[in-house]
Amino acid sequence: MTPAARVQAAIGLLDQVIAAALAKGAPADRILADWFRASRFAGSKDRRAIRELVYAAIRHCGPLPQTGRAAMLALADGDPALLPLFDGSPYGPAPVEEGELVAEAGIAPQWLVERLAASGIEGREEAALLDRAPLDIRVNALKADRDALALPLAGERLPTAQGLRFPFGTPIEQWLEYQDGLIEVQDGGSQLACEAVGAAPGETVIDLCAGAGGKTLALAAAMAGGGTLIAADTDRGRLAKLAPRAERAGALIAETVLLNPGREAEALAAWQGKADAVLIDAPCSGTGTWRRNPEARWRLDAAALDRLAALQARLLEIAAQLVRPGGRLVYVVCSLLDEEGAGQAAAFLGRHPEFSAGPPALPLGSPRGSGIRLTPFHDETDGFFIARLGKA
Description:
Elements: H1 3-23, H2 28-38, H3 44-60, H4 68-76, H5 110-118, H6 124-127, E1 135-139, E2 156-157, E3 163-166, H7 176-179, E4 183-185, H8 188-197, E5 204-207, H9 214-223, E6 228-233, H10 236-240, H11 242-249, E7 255-258, H12 264-267, E8 275-281, H13 302-322, E9 323-333, H14 342-351, E10 355-357, E11 366-368, E12 371-374, H15 376-379, E13 384-391
Parallel strand pairs: 5-6, 5-8, 6-7, 8-9
Antiparallel strand pairs: 1-3, 1-4, 2-3, 9-13, 10-13, 11-12, 12-13
Helix pairs in contact: 1-2, 1-3, 1-4, 3-4, 8-9
C-alpha cells in the first residue's frame, strides 16, 4: 500500500470507530482486527502504519469527530508529512478543499474535561491519560515466582508482589509461559487493587464484579489454594471465560454465581454476613483506562455517568450485607472522577456508620478522600480509586 492509501484506509476505519461510539458498538481494537483479517492485501507494515494513524487521530481529537476525514485532517494540522498525502492519488484521500471540516483537538469533550478538573485531574495529569500504556504482567504465584522465572525478555520489576513491565506490543500471548498459565496480563494498578484486598489462605472472599476473572485469579493466587473464593457477575458470557482461565492458572474457584440484575442479593444469600472480604471492581466510566481505550471518552455522556454512579452505590449496599463483622470491603473503580471514587466511598460511609475507612497500605498512590488514587502521570499505572472499608 502507498502512504496515501494507508491514510485513506485509516479514514475509513475512523468512520467505523465514530459510528460505533455513537451506537455503543464494537471497540476500536475489534474494528481494526476485523478489518485486518478481511484485508489480506495489507501487509504487516501496512497494518502497523494504519493502526498508528487511527490511534493517533483518536488520541488527538477531544470531542467525537464528525467524520474520519475530519479527524485525520486535525491530525495532519500538526504533522507536516501527513497533509501532502491528501493528493487524490489512486486509493488515497481526495485533496483538501478550502474551508473543509476539521475535527477539534483536545483531551476529551468539554463537559468531561470540566468533571476531571473538578476531581483534580488537569495539566500534566490530564495529558498523561492519553499516553501509550506499557504491557504489565503478573507472575502466577500458584505456578511460579517472579525472582526465579526466566522469560524470553527481561521485564522491569513493578512495586507489586509479582509484577513485571514490558514495552507496548511485546508478544506475551505467544510465550509458552503465558499459554501454560505461569503469567497473566494485568496492569500494575489492577494488581495493587487486588493486593489491597489482603486475601489470605483460609478466608472466604467474594469477587462481586468478577467479569472474565482477571482480579479473581489474582485473589486465588494470594489465597494459595486455601479458603473459599466466589466469583459473581451479571454477564454470563464474561463469567463463562473464567473456568478455562482458572484451569490454565491452576486456580481454585469455589463457585461462580450468575447474578440477576436487581435480584443479586437472592443469589448471594448463602454468604450474607459470612465474607471475610468482598471486592467490588465496579462498572465505571473507565476514565483511568484511556491510555488503552482512548475512544472510550467518546462513548460517555452525563446521563450514562449518572447511571453508573447509581449502580456503584447499589453494589456497595449489596456488598455491605455480605461482609462479616470484622471483615472488609474493598471498593475499586478504574475512574478518576470523584463521583465514582472518593464521593461514592464518602456517601457509603455516611450511610453505614458500622464501616470505617483504613487507607490500603500500598507502595503507590496518593490520598483521595477515604481511599487512594493511582494515576498514569503520578504512578505510571492505569487510573484507579481504591478504598478499603472495614466493618466493626
